[in-house]
Design goal:
By secondary structure, the chain is of the alpha+beta class. The protein has 4 helices and 10 strands, in the order βββαββαβαβαβββ. The chain folds into 2 domains: about 1-120, Impact, N-terminal domain (Ribosomal Protein S5, domain 2, 2-Layer Sandwich); about 125-190, Alpha-Beta Plaits, CATH 3.30.70. Strands 1, 7, 8, 9 and 10 form a 5-stranded antiparallel β-sheet that branches. It starts with a strand and ends with a strand.
Amino acid sequence: MKTLIEAVSNEYVIKNSKFITEVIPLNNVEDVKDYLDRAKVLYPKATHYCYAYKIADVKKSSDDNEPKATAGLPMLNILEKENLNNILVITIRYFGGIKLGAGGLIRAYSKSVKLALAKAELKELVKGYLIELAFSYNEQNQINSLLKNMKVRKKEYLNDVKYLVEVPKDKLGLIENYKYKIIDELDIVVEE
């Protein structure tokens, strides 16, 4: 399974209709509404704001008043076919005055997503944990060395040091001698 490293966008025109596709890394389903609201502000005169997302085992799509299953579902199918996760795709359509028909819409939305994904940098996802790791100040250099290539989301310096870290399942043994607490199980990007 793969995910997107950073957001990309692409513009595609067919029969005077403009399709602007944004592909966005997504870690929270709750963020979808914010991204859709942002698209509506950036492209206020668009006719449709269709989307699809897949995060963990949750997936959803919307045709936004295009004929049923001609926009969101084809976009979601691309995400699944490409084995992508933790990703949101929004395609903003400006209607160009020429009807494309159901088959034409499916092809247009699919192609728009494929063109945007062709610009994207993808990374492999692995099963892992979000952990809170606590240690003394004099262990910081050793911990930093152990966590090399792991994403440290947050660092807190109080009586001791606390890190919020994404750790692949197969690397959890590296920190077994330290005090840690598993916060969540998730798919994570492995740094190289």
